[in-house]
Design brief:
With about 1100 residues, this protein is α+β, with helices and mostly antiparallel strands. The protein has 39 helices and 35 strands. About 40% of the residues lie in helices and about 15% in strands. The protein is elongated, with a radius of gyration of 45 Å. This is Vacuolar protein sorting-associated protein 16 homolog. Pfam families: Vps16_C, Vps16_N.
Length: about 1100
């Protein structure tokens, strides 16, 4: 029974003897290295219960070791590795004089020379180049080398830095982060520190940072091939396999009250499959989740309110996306208030581990923190909404670390399935518990062999825990306390463990190995005396290959039992998938094929009855394709150490993505075609292959005569052939004849290759390829990246896509300087070079901004460049009229008037540019400027703002002057003269002037002046009705009203007099006037609205 299963209830067993001197030490090597011994592949005698000698290893290349009842093997992926070498030794661009390599470590040459001189001056034995072992040992005392590998057989990243955070003397101010394949080929390199910056949250600008190589705290890979570098002040850097930064630098843990350039000092940081978790010296923690465009966008919406996002800076127009589309990479940072909890419980934190969100009940990562009193605190990612800030003390004190005194946990590691946690305590006891801490699965004491904690600890699949112990090699502990010790010489170089889902990679200074549990199917097939169906079929196949006559009988014996042959075929196929040796793979597949031959001849076979391939045949073809793919990516030129289980975990599309990220575009394209993946995947792989071809043409054009004479047209034609999957030597590709719709490449292929050509300095190739792009979105983004902003806008206009048009204009704006010259260049370029749709959109955009109170100058600038003077001047005039007073003081009012005058003068000048077309608008504007001047003169003359309020019209100004006469009777004659002057100057008609006077005098209670105005002429130009109405509304007496009504004696004034009497409530006179008019309806109207009984009786008399 496997104790790591859920139903395990057996009490734990403690073993303390793996370090005894008389215990056998496993020294096996390369169990699957190809050998010329054909009999070895046929032999199933693979279990070795005794220590293997070198001769045994050579004679038995498939040697396994038993960990209890579980067989394990040691597979050498690559040996005698020269780390950091290039694909071509003649094209090594790394300066040899700058750094010296010792295994996985690189040191500056001056630093190495200094240590040599220092050692020779104090030691009787000089250190020379021939004694690299002593020199490497000396260098390792002052430096440390970080080494990490991408999960699922991915690349390896290393960096060497001094132990002192301030930098060791002579080491230098820079180091190099190298990303290499498992065979040692250099994929990319990152100079550290170089161009480090952080974006200020207040200003949004970049601020430079100064760091040294000694500031590196840890490095690690996520499952999505993102390399994370964490510095001691929590500054986090993220790179892809090509060494390109995918996110701007950011502080994972910010100190309260500190600026943007300062983060919290870290105690520990650990990279997990989905990001990184950090623990500060102030006992606070944070978890950074690295997400991308393939994640659910709503996942971020459910994050804690204290969380914040880190997104890439979109300086490249090709990376511009819509507002709703997530960026290609982004980080979600969640700070956790763990310090307060630790202070309340009076303990500190040690190591940390993260349970990935796939295995957490909340579907978000959970942070496990080991405490100084031997317990573990679990923190959720929702501290603001969870009780106790989401922190729970599991209280495992006394349960972990054996029966001795309590000891804190110094190292933790989760199993790949997330169900178990391996804990190593300070008293050298390994304890495996469930993630709920309800059951203890294993306790293993290592104190007799080593009192120090392991240098690294992880899981080898789901069945064992591996630890690298100083001077003891690698120790593997199994489910029941069984153990294996793999001897590695620590003196020869560093040893790094890389836990995988089904194995453990061991990276040394000269090799890469895999420690793996032998797949159960393989173990069943090759076990001595096995009677499994697969083993019997394998024996029959081997007998057939050797020409034995018993082969047919052995095969027919399997077919006699129903279903046994199909089971045997499946076992052979499964065993073949788990092998690394091509010979063993072929042997297993031959056995499966041999069984399929009998299955097809069976009349009762389901495949013959349905007429379709049997499930076993389909599985055979699928396994053959998988093995060919795995063998192709395991070659030294590719260097992927991927197993069958890892292939299934990543999927075929994931393998293609990793190959392209590692720079193996040609292989990715071939595999995608071979596996018949989706069209988009195959087309994307072809595009990356074409990109690699264009880059290679540009990179070696100086050294290769064949490529140097290739013109841009020839390079473009070859790239198009690669994209279309055509054979070389076809006809011209720049003809008008198009491919059939089914053969058209996916959208964006030509654009992506064109971008690569542009970056490589092949502008002509880029232009030719962009012409063939059919997707407007990809074509626009490619043109923007190249710098053809007007062409991009034209493409967007033809596509009738306003978003793309705006994107083109925005990119053009960002490409220019942020000063007056840049703005003028922008508006001139848009108006003169961009399509009319873009110009109209820009005009509408700035018009909207101006209408909302924004700056009106951009809109006017555009209109003037478009020769639309009337519209430009009108908008300026409207803006001047819309100015309102912001302060009641005279100074503020004067400033406002001055601003209005200047704005109106500008509008007048704009109208003047159009000549006769805007003569009316210019005349109106100039007259209004004169009115403003007259109003200012009146205010200065009479010393008050009431005589001529600002922003008043001609009519309002005349009325204000007349009204002010009531407040200053002594100046009334002068005021009346000013009013007449203003009316004459601005050509106010006589009737309009009299109406204004009547209204002004009545509102200001100047009744005598009103009567004088009415009596000033025998016949008023506006009649007497306005005077009478003013008296009625002013509640004057009947005599005053009749003074005006009495003068209305014309034949056409009868109806007006009736209405005036009704308005004044003179009902008797209204009845008399109605009688004179002979209108009974008016008499009835008086009766209906009058409350006097006498008047109603009078109305009845006439009705």
């Amino acid at each position: 029974m496997n104790p790591f299963d859920d139903d395990f209830v057996t009490p734990p067993t403690r073993h303390t003897n793996p370090f005894a001197d008389d215990d056998p030490v496993v020294t096996s090597s390369n169990p699957l290295h190809p050998s010329s011994h054909a009999a070895a592949a046929a032999s199933r005698s693979t279990f070795q219960h005794e220590p293997l000698t070198p001769s045994d290893i050579d004679n038995d290349p498939t040697a396994w070791q038993d960990l209890g009842d579980l067989p394990y093997r040691r597979v050498i992926i690559a040996s005698n590795i020269l780390w950091g070498r290039h694909h071509s030794t003649t094209n090594n661009n790394t300066p040899k004089d700058e750094e010296e390599r010792f295994g996985l470590s690189w040191y500056p040459k001056p630093y190495v020379d200094t240590l040599k001189a220092h050692q020779s001056s104090f030691s009787s034995s000089n250190i020379n180049n021939n004694n690299n072992h002593d020199l490497a040992s000396l260098l390792s005392t002052t430096t440390t080398t970080f080494c990490t590998a991408c999960p699922n057989g991915g690349p390896i990243a290393t960096v060497t830095s001094p132990l002192d955070a301030g930098g060791s003397a002579g080491f230098g101010s820079r180091t190099t982060i190298r990303i290499m394949s498992n065979s040692g080929l250099l994929l990319s390199s990152i100079v550290f520190p170089k161009d480090l910056y952080i974006i200020s949250h207040k200003t949004g600008k970049k601020m430079g940072l100064h760091r040294s190589p000694g500031d590196i705290l840890t490095i690690g890979w996520t499952t999505r091939c993102i390399l994370i570098v964490v510095l001691r002040d929590s500054l986090t850097l993220c790179y892809d396999m090509g060494g390109r930064a995918v996110l701007p630098p950011f502080h994972a843990l910010k100190c309260s009250g500190s600026g943007d350039q300062q983060g919290c000092e870290l105690l520990e940081a650990t990279v997990f499959e989905g990001g990184v978790a950090v623990l500060g010296t102030d006992r606070n923690a944070a978890v950074v989740e690295l997400l991308d465009e393939h994640d659910d966008p709503t996942y971020v919406d459910g994050a804690d309110v204290t969380s914040w996002r880190v997104v890439p800076s979109n300086n490249d127009p090709s990376e511009m996306r819509t507002v709703f589309a997530p960026p290609p990479h982004y980080a979600l940072v969640t700070p956790l208030p763990t310090a307060m909890f630790a202070k309340s419980k009076h303990f500190t934190y040690g190591c940390i581990a993260v349970l990935p969100r796939e295995y957490a009940p909340s579907r978000r990562p959970e942070l496990f923190l080991a405490t100084s009193d031997g317990s573990v605190v679990v923190s959720e990612m929702q501290p603001s909404t969870s009780p106790n800030n989401g922190l729970v003390d599991v209280d495992c004190r006394g349960k972990i670390g054996g029966s001795g005194p309590k000891a804190p946990i110094v190292s933790m590691a989760f199993a790949p399935n997330g169900r178990f946690l391996a804990c190593f305590t300070a008293n050298s006891v390994l304890t495996v518990v469930s993630t709920t801490f309800e059951s203890i699965v294993l306790e293993f004491d290592t104190s007799s062999g080593s009192s120090s904690p392991p240098r690294s600890m992880g899981w080898c699949g789901e069945d064992s825990v591996v630890m690298h112990m100083k001077h003891l090699g690698v120790l593997m502990v199994g489910p029941y306390g069984d153990w294996l010790r793999f001897a590695y010489n620590d003196d020869e170089g560093e040893i790094y463990l890389v836990p995988e889902i089904d194995c453990c990679r061991v990276v040394t200074s000269s090799s890469v190995e895999i420690l793996q549990r032998v797949p159960p199917g393989t173990a069943d097939l090759l076990r001595i005396g096995s009677i499994e169906a697969g083993a019997l079929l394998l024996d029959a196949s081997d007998a057939f290959d050797s020409g034995s006559s018993n082969a047919d009988e052995a095969a027919r014996a399997i077919t006699q039992q129903e279903g046994l042959l199909e089971e045997a075929i499946r076992e052979c196929i499964a065993a073949a998938e788990g092998e690394f040796d091509v010979k063993v793979q072929k042997r297993m597949l031959r056995a499966a094929s041999y069984g399929l031959h009998f299955a097809c001849r069976d009349e009762h076979s389901p495949s013959r009855m349905t007429g379709r391939p049997s499930p076993e045949a389909v599985a055979f073809v699928r396994a053959a394709r998988k093995l060919r793919t795995l063998n192709a990516i395991r070659t030294p030129s590719t260097g992927f150490a991927m197993t069958s289980a890892q292939y299934d975990s990543v999927s075929a599309k994931g393998v293609i993505a990793r190959l392209m990220a590692a720079g193996h575009a040609a292989l990715a394209s071939a595999i995608s075609e071979y596996l018949k993946l989706g069209r988009q995947v195959r087309d994307y792989a072809k595009a990356m292959k074409a990109t690699a071809f264009v880059n290679s043409c540009s990179a070696v054009s100086q050294s290769s005569k064949t490529l140097s004479i290739m013109t841009d047209s020839q390079i473009a034609e070859e790239a198009i052939r690669i994209i279309r999957g055509e054979e070389k030597g076809g006809g011209k590709l720049f003809e008008k004849d198009k491919l059939p719709p089914a053969s058209q490449p996916s959208s964006g292929m030509y654009a992506s290759v064109a971008l690569a050509a542009h970056r490589a300095g092949r502008r002509g190739v880029a232009d030719l390829l962009i012409m063939l792009e059919q997707s407007p979105v990809d074509k626009v983004h490619a043109l923007l990246s190249i710098g053809s902003y007007a062409d991009a806008a034209a493409v967007a206009a033809r596509a009738r896509d306003p978003d793309l048009i705006f994107t083109a204009m925005l990119a053009y704006d960002k490409s220019l300087s942020d000063n007056d010259e840049g703005k003028n260049t922008y508006f001139s370029g848009v108006v003169n070079k961009f399509p009319m749709e873009a110009v109209n959109m820009l005009t509408a955009y700035h018009s909207r901004i101006a209408a909302m109170g924004g700056d009106v100058k951009p809109m006017v600038n555009i209109l003037l460049r478009r020769q639309r003077h009337a519209e430009a001047g009108t908008n300026i005039g409207k803006r001047a009229i819309a100015l309102v007073r912001s302060d009641s003081s005279i100074m503020a009012e004067n400033e406002l008037e001055q601003q209005k005058v200047e704005t109106l003068k500008e509008a007048s000048n704009i109208f003047g540019l159009a000549g006769k077309d805007c003569l009316f608008q210019k005349t109106c504007t100039d007259e209004y400027l004169d009115l403003i001047s007259d109003q200012e003169q009146l205010r200065r003359q009479y010393g008050t703002i009431d005589v001529a309020p600002p922003s008043s019209s001609v009519t309002a100004t005349i009325a204000s002057i007349l009204k002010y006469a009531a407040a200053d009777p002594r100046s009334s004659h002068k005021l009346f003269a000013d009013a007449d002057r203003i009316a004459k100057k601005y050509k106010v008609s006589e009737k309009r002037l009299w109406y204004v006077k009547v209204q002004a005098f009545s509102e200001s209670k100047q009744w005598a002046v009103l009567r004088n105005l009415a009596d000033s002429r025998a016949k008023s130009p506006i009649g007497m009705k306005p005077f009478a109405l003013a008296a009625i509304k002013g509640r004057q007496g009947e005599a005053e009203i009749m003074h005006y009504v009495g003068r209305m004696q014309g034949q056409s004034d009868g109806e007006d007099r009736y209405e005036l009497f009704c308005e004044a409530g003179m009902w008797r006179k209204a009845v008399d006037e109605a009688v004179k008019l002979g209108d009974r309806r008016r008499i009835a109207h008086v009766k209906s609205v009058c409350n006097s009984i006498e008047i109603q009786a009078l109305c009845d008399k006439y009705v």
